[in-house]
Design a protein that fits this description.
The chain has about 325 residues and is an alpha/beta fold. The chain has helices at about 15-20, 35-40, 60, 80-85, 100-115, 120-125, 150-165, 175-185, 215-220, 240-250, 290-310; strands at about 5, 25-30, 45-50, 70, 90-95, 145-150, 165-170, 185, 200-205, 225-230, 250-255, 275-280. The protein folds into two domains: about 5-95 and about 290-310, Rossmann fold (3-Layer(aba) Sandwich), CATH 3.40.50; about 100-280, NAD(P)-binding Rossmann-like Domain (Rossmann fold, 3-Layer(aba) Sandwich), CATH 3.40.50. The chain has eleven helices and twelve strands. Strand 3, helix 3 and strand 4 (about 70) form a beta-alpha-beta unit. The radius of gyration is 21 Å and the shape is elongated.
Length: about 325
């Protein structure tokens, strides 16, 4: 029997081509459908490939009588009700390697932009204002980078930071001493050791109950004055109101945020009024290479499952 797959969000054509060429599998590509439209057709499909737009929630799952697997072409599964899928016997997979380099490079780009105030300097210069003396930056060389989370992306950030001649300290509950030595980082036993030592902090952990508002008034109070902060991981890791207070007080010299607690971030977000803040619209995986990688990875995983039930990167 044909294994039917719905691709409900935009996916690179190389992934679509791989699915279309697979024996025993048929694919329909229907991005941009409204939730009610998705619910009306999902009952015809065995597999579903999504990005971040489709919400695989209780309402959609209630209509998905044939659904056996959902694959997120990307890392985060915030838009998928994983527990509800498990209850229904629906496998959930992601593609954790496809956008690793892109996400890590974006974090490094944000860090460098903060250090030299690139966005604001560019804006004022192009506006006809020559403010050379205003934009006094800091060198990254020799500074201490505190990395929170040393998984796939965090490890690449560590590698790039060491290449920039930074000292890297890291906290991750599952980081072993051997792995820390392999990465070339100083392993911290408790996250509170990181706050007063880091000149720059970069976040690379998922959003869980235990990591929500990980950076809050208490942690900001323990940080080195003038710290630079980068979050290209997940919105919700930082208490945004507390961050604003830390910026106003001078504890945080600059913050670069690619993710926000609510996305799209509202136009009147109070952080957007601050020159100390760089904001980008969740661009971590937005490179041509990453789009191809996650699409092909998702297609290969779907094909493997359709053939004999093989699961790869199952959550």
């Amino acid at each position: 029997m044909t294994f039917r797959v719905l691709v409900s969000d935009k996916l690179d054509q190389q992934g679509i081509a791989a699915l279309a060429a697979a024996d025993g599998l048929s694919v329909d590509v229907k991005p941009g459908l409204k939730p009610a439209e998705q619910e009306a057709i999902i009952g015809d499909y065995d597999g579903l490939i999504v990005r971040s737009a489709t919400k695989v929630n209780e309402a959609l799952l209630a209509k998905a009588a044939r659904l056996k697997i959902v694959i997120r072409a990307g890392i985060g599964v915030d838009n998928i009700a994983v527990a509800a899928c498990k209850e229904r016997g629906v496998v959930v997979e992601n593609t954790p390697r496809g956008n690793v380099v892109s996400a890590a490079e974006h974090a490094i780009a944000l860090m460098m932009s903060l250090a030299r105030q690139v966005p604001t300097a560019s804006h004022t210069t192009k506006s006809g204002v020559w403010e050379k003396s205003k934009f006094m930056g800091v060198e990254i060389t020799g500074k201490t980078l505190g990395v929170i989370g040393t998984g796939n992306i965090g490890a690449v950030v560590v590698d790039r930071a060491l290449g920039l001649r930074m000292k890297v300290i890291a906290f991750d509950p599952i980081l072993t001493a051997d792995k820390a030595e392999e990465l070339g980082v100083e392993k911290l036993e408790h996250i509170d050791e990181l706050w007063p030592r880091a000149d720059v902090i970069s976040l690379h952990v998922p959003l869980l109950a235990s990591t929500r508002n990980l950076l809050n008034d208490l942690s900001f109070a323990k940080m080195k004055k003038g710290v630079l902060l980068v979050n290209a991981a997940r919105g919700g890791l930082i208490d945004e109101d507390a961050l604003l207070r830390a910026i106003v007080s001078g504890v945080v010299r600059g913050a670069a945020l690619d993710v926000f607690e609510t996305e799209p971030a509202r136009k009147d977000h109070p952080l957007f009024a601050r020159d100390e803040v760089i904001a980008t619209p969740h661009l971590g995986a937005s490179t041509f290479e990453a789009q191809v990688n996650v699409a092909v990875e998702a297609a290969e995983q779907m094909i493997a499952f359709s053939r004999d039930g093989t699961t790869i990167n199952a959550l």
